Amino acid sequence: MSLNRSMHPRNPYKESPPDFNDLATRFPDFRAHCTLGNNGRVFVNFQEDGAVRSLTKALLKKDFDLEVELPHGCLVPRVPQRLNYILFIEDLLKLNQIENNVIGIDIGTGASCIYALLGARWAGWKFFATETNTKAAEAANANVVRNRLGHLIRVIHISEQSTTLIKFTFCMCNPPFFESCETSKVRFIGGEVAFIGRLIDESVLLQTQVSIYTTMLGKKSSISVLCRRLSRIDGVRYTVSTLSQGRTLRWVLAWTFLPQIHLENVRIPFVIFFRKVSLLFFFLSQTLICSARNVTWTNQRAKRRADAKLNTPAMKRMKFSNSDVGIQVSMGVGDGRDSLSNSGNFESCISIPNSYGRFDVHTQAYFPCPVRPSVLRFRVIHFRENCGISFEYIDGYKPGLYQLLQFLKNQIK
């Protein structure tokens, strides 16, 4: 499922995704990795490293006037995802009214030096880009010189044991996600949790030398571990935001030791536009009590497969021969005075002659059945001022409410 609708609202790729036809016309290197379909559309195999490399170079040149060389064996960045991170930091700075003399540090900039290049070109920030790999540092410095951004970006080669920081507005980091990998820059003992854990420990020593610490997370399971680690530190405040692009979901963890820095309102909102639904909300009461007697919002994939089988042509479906079955039913008779109770079943049979010389027979019977209890009961509250909806659990199967909320989110997306 594409996550482009949840992309940062100021990301230009949200409303205008890359046009492969146009890129193939402009850039011969990218055109060599394209395939023309029968419908005239250009297709790209994103599993091929060379195709992703040429696409990244084409987008950086076309949209940001950046000429970047990406050596083989180094990580190839995705431009929309990297730009999302830059926009997140820009939101943080605007929230705290930090506009002048912005100096950031990119820890582990990589051979592309993409964060520093985008930050300098997009927002005019100054950067210190650090890198432990000698070849990657040389390639990053060459990219800075190639784009004449040496007055804004300084690439520094450091040892793995030291990450000396001075006074910075923010720091950013795209850590190694995996514990072991052949590709440079994505391998670190202990994975991203250990890498960011070391960054958190260093931030405790540096405190306010960096106004805002940020790092990207590639695994959702890392969020709770790192947040627990931050919660044990005195005087620190933190927030987690989501970065969505294409079919990839990433998270950004930000924390600060400065009491005047605001982090609360920096989360990227997920905006939902109601059309006919907004008119429905106008007539609905503010609070609804909902009761579910059956769980109908789970196993959606199995239901779709079953529907697909039912919708197959009639020639392919199995046909059953018709058969007439006679059934005789014997019903108990109650006292006839309390037909709407459990004292017994009430039965009445009336025969009325019709105009054809026959009789129309009408039979009525009452079968008392216990009412099936609700599987889940919850309260839905509508906030008119911001079109918000709140779900409150009342009783029943509590995990069912979380399943229902996830089902509704999937339907909206």
UniProtKB/TrEMBL annotation:
GO cellular component: nucleus
Top-level lineage group: Eukaryota
Keyword Methyltransferase: yes
Gene3D superfamilies listed in its UniProt record: Vaccinia Virus protein VP39
Record keywords: Methyltransferase, Transferase
Swiss-Prot/TrEMBL GO biological process terms: rRNA base methylation
InterPro entries, per the entry: METTL16/RlmF, SAM-dependent_MTases_sf
GO molecular function annotations of the record: methyltransferase activity
Keyword Methyltransferase among record annotations: yes
Stored SUPFAM superfamilies: S-adenosyl-L-methionine-dependent methyltransferases
Stated name of the protein: U6 small nuclear RNA (adenine-(43)-N(6))-methyltransferase
Species this protein is from: Angiostrongylus costaricensis (Nematode worm)
